[in-house]
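Q&A log
Question type: sequence-to-structure
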Amino acid sequence: MKHYIGCKLIEAEPALRINGEVIQQEGDYIDIPPEATVEEGYRVRYPDGYESWSPKKVFEKAYFQVDDSVVQGENNVSRRMVDEFISHAMACSSPPIEPHVVRVMCVLRNGTTIHEKFDCVDPQLFDENFGEKMCWNNIYRKIEEHLDFLIKMGKNGIQ
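Response status: OK
Response body:
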């Protein structure tokens, strides 16, 4: 068999599977028998209307929540979406090797690493905070572009 990659825009909500039956949570309380087998997960609805249940870890590894405005056709990637797609980041200036240089490294939730560097030619004008801000602006723009690509792929497929 050959390998394929795909991306779908789906609907989902948290749901429990109790003794093999998917239970949609309505309210804060569910009466669960002590001997019951309970699994946390999500009830999922695909674009063709097919519904299924997915275990929590499997679902959360594969899917990322988008804002409602994206689904309504605005295609705007929000600041929240960008912030939540960042796993961790670090910034540093690098004297004495490269004085007047700021570097920012950002790792996304999918393992992608983005590096940005800000150089200042005139040492008297060097401002580490400004350099870091410029790096972050570039990183956010790149993440927005990546998320926009995924959203369009999820909505439109490959065609």
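Response note: Strands lie at 11-18, 21-24, 38-45, 51-55, 86-94, 98-108, 113-119.
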